[in-house]
Write a structure and sequence with these properties.
Elements: H1 2-31, E1 41-42, E2 57-58, E3 67-74, E4 77-80, E5 84-85, E6 88-96, E7 102-108, E8 116-123, E9 128-135, E10 138-143, E11 147-150, E12 153-156, E13 163-168
This protein binds copper (II) ion.
Length: about 170
Amino acid sequence: MRRTSLGRARVVLSGVALLAALLLACSDDANDAAPLSTAVAVADPMPVGDPVAGGGHPLGTLTRFDATVEMDLGEWFVSTETPSVSAGLIRFVARNVGGEVHEFALVEGTSKDGREVIEIEGISAGDGREIGARLQAGRYLLACLIVEVEDGAVEDHFALGMWTEFTVE
Ligand SMILES: [Cu+2]
């Protein structure tokens, strides 16, 4: 019996060691620059003002970035004059120029099923917010992923056209 409980303790201990090693490996991954060929995106903590509920920050409050991507959100489009940028710390400025509530999601890849890297939810008509992310080379979508029922009909903002391709080189 004694040997059994000792063995169990050792198993638990090695499990803790494994977890610590995994955590260490994860934080290493976050800090190391990955090869530019992989599409890895990491949200980056920037010195900024208070975040807004729903994500993002008031316009003009991000203080450190390598490039700015401004976009207009409306029925039913996401438009930007900056469809590609170099890898780095990117500031996204999302303005709702439409009449309904929209959101901004940066989606990895070229389909709406990709991972959401960053998101600003609930941007009211006429309002705008900004958000930053450190991005490496890859293909992304700037999209609004709101799906709602309005007057008994499903309104899928992405399906209606609220997305545009975005490339980090
Ligand atoms: Cu929308």
